Amino acid sequence: MKRKMLLGFVGLLLAVQLPFAGPAFAAGGVDAETVARLEGLIEAQQRQLEQQQQQLQALQQQVGQFKQTVTETQAQAKEAKAVADEIKVANLDPVKKGVTSGSDKIKLAISGQVNRAMNVVDDGDNTEAYFVDSSASGSKFRLVGSAKLDDDLTLGTRMELGFSPNASSQVSQDNMASGDSFDQRYADISLGSMRFGKIFLGKGDTSSNNTAEVDLSGTDIVQYASIADIAGGMEFVRSGNNDLSGISVSDAFKDFDGLSRKNRLRYDTPTFYGAHLS
Fold first, then answer.
1. Going by DSSP bridges, is the β-strand pair 197-205/127-133 parallel, antiparallel, or unpaired?
2. Whole-prediction pTM value?
3. What is the distance between the alpha carbons of residues 63 and 49, in angstroms, rounded to a whole number?
């Protein structure tokens, strides 16, 4: 009896709940409009992701180009530094930073010059241009070495060769191409002491050389006291017939300088109050 009553009660409950289950399911369902809206939102997000992906790829490409530019710039900077270092070495003082040995006490300086000129000469009859090597200070190549023996003594040497194609002191109206001139200007060794002075042996300046050719203008490489150096071979013209006289500028003008450069043994005293004997 009790079992039948229990089954009947359960059946009553099911009968009461079933009518409410249908409306609840209907209320929790998703209509087609909502589904379409969600699909549109998903598609929009998908398109946005694709755009972001394209932007990311473009940025990656720009980064790659930037890295390449940086690499090229670094390479150019390295080349520029190498060139700057070469220029710096080339511009070093040849006396202080010239060719040196493994010891700082021994130095070798290499120097020289090329001094070409064009002389325009009017001899009263004709005006001509002459392309010469200026004898005022001709083209030359020089080696100067020094070795510090101790705190007082210094051993030195100087070798210098002059070369003058068409020397200005030799060219004339009837000899416009005087040829090549080579001059062994210096082949000299020296030993200097701050206490005892300096001694020279070999070919070099005598004590009287340049005594009449002091030039304070700083332009002696172009012209100085020796007029004959710049146009010594040019001849004067005779008045009347304009013939060459055979008398040159060097015959008429002398600078009365000393003995120039000779093979000699020379001694210079130490300097006392700005003066010394030789």
1. unpaired
2. 0.59
3. 21
